[in-house]
Amino acid sequence: MNSLYFDNAATTAMRPEVIEEMTDKMTTIYGNASSTHEFGRQAKKVLDDSREILAKSINATDKEIIITSGGTESNNMALRQVAQIKQNEGNHIISTVIEHPSVLRTLEYLEGLGFEVTYLPVNLQGNLSTEDVKSALRPDTILVSLMSVNNETGAKLPIHEIGELLKDHQAVFHTDAVQSYGLDSIDVRRDHIDLLSTSAHKINGPKFIGFLYLNKDIFVKPLILGGEQESKRRAGTENVPAIAGFAKAVSLLDEKSKQDKQDFFKKLTTQLLSNLKENHVAFEVNGQLSDNHSYHVLNLWIKGVETSRLQMNLDLNHIAVSGGSACSAGSLEPSHVLTAMYGENSSRVNESIRISFGEFNTESEVEALSNQVVKISSKLLTKNK
């Protein structure tokens, strides 16, 4: 049996066109983009052309794009540096309990510096109420940080509505768009977004490269000190081949292709769930499959089947999915997202798997996956009796 990969929310395989682009740039464009000679100018042109592509993808300007190492650095830079420059206006920050660890750990760090953070809850569908944000807003709120799409459930947060709510407030609006970039329409002007984080490896680009969109009206000090790269906002010699690869991945996307992907992932989801129902597997979807859901993520509660055992057996059959738990320092910790949705005593927390689709998955692969889930869950339930 061929190995099957259904963990695309963690990372995606690079597209052949991206690999070709990076290989070309590694071979032919090896100058330092900060150098003033011919080789440097060649690298600088690739950098500038790539930045233009990235900026246009979210309706930003070139100067508003800061190249980073990815989502984690972008989130750290957005939260830490904005809090620093806004602290004279207040010390209150709003976020949610379901954010990515790179946001939650950074907020903990800021709390240690004296900032006050309100962590908003989510409902059983894993979504956030705009009214909760409105109620939490205070005159001293300086920053609101909300992910666009949750990486464990696929829930889409109401970013546009919250942007409208904040447009006349002093609070800066940041969104971690790592899971939505490349799959949903993003317009920072339309949605009144001040800062936005992305990562290339989620859209079939290279790892360890991303960007932070920073509204031109906001000035922050660099998180990484050194040279004057990125208009003095992020020091370090730019990784030109990776940036070119990122831009290539973005250039292969358009609004139609994004919708086509969502439609395709919805079709795969329907196929998988239908197969499980036909074979009498007891399951429920964690969250809700609706217009407020990104169909590249499917989180399933397989009733009575322990996450780690199901994941391990799938792995033994060469099928990669993600558990409902995160591995940290060799110990399994319950998913903070599912815990926030259903409570720490819910069976869902320890009996759920995340299946995340990518553009290279096929219907025949989903058929093989569903057949194995049926077979393995039946075997494990029999052993538990």
Structural commentary:
This protein has 12 helices and 15 strands. It is α/β, with parallel strands linked by helices and 385 residues long. The protein has 2 domains: 16-251, Type I PLP-dependent aspartate aminotransferase-like (Major domain) (Aspartate Aminotransferase, domain 2, 3-Layer(aba) Sandwich), CATH 3.40.640.10; 254-384, Alpha-Beta Complex (Aspartate Aminotransferase, domain 1). Helix 3 runs parallel beside helix 4 (101-112). It is globular, with a radius of gyration of 22 Å. GO terms for molecular function: cysteine desulfurase activity; iron-sulfur cluster binding; metal ion binding. Belongs to the class-V pyridoxal-phosphate-dependent aminotransferase family. NifS/IscS subfamily.
Domain module tally: 2
Return the CATH class of the largest domain.
Alpha Beta
Radius of gyration: 22 Å
Shape: globular
Segments where pLDDT lies below 50 for 5+ residues? 325-331
Task: Assign a percent range to the helix content.
Answer: 40-55%
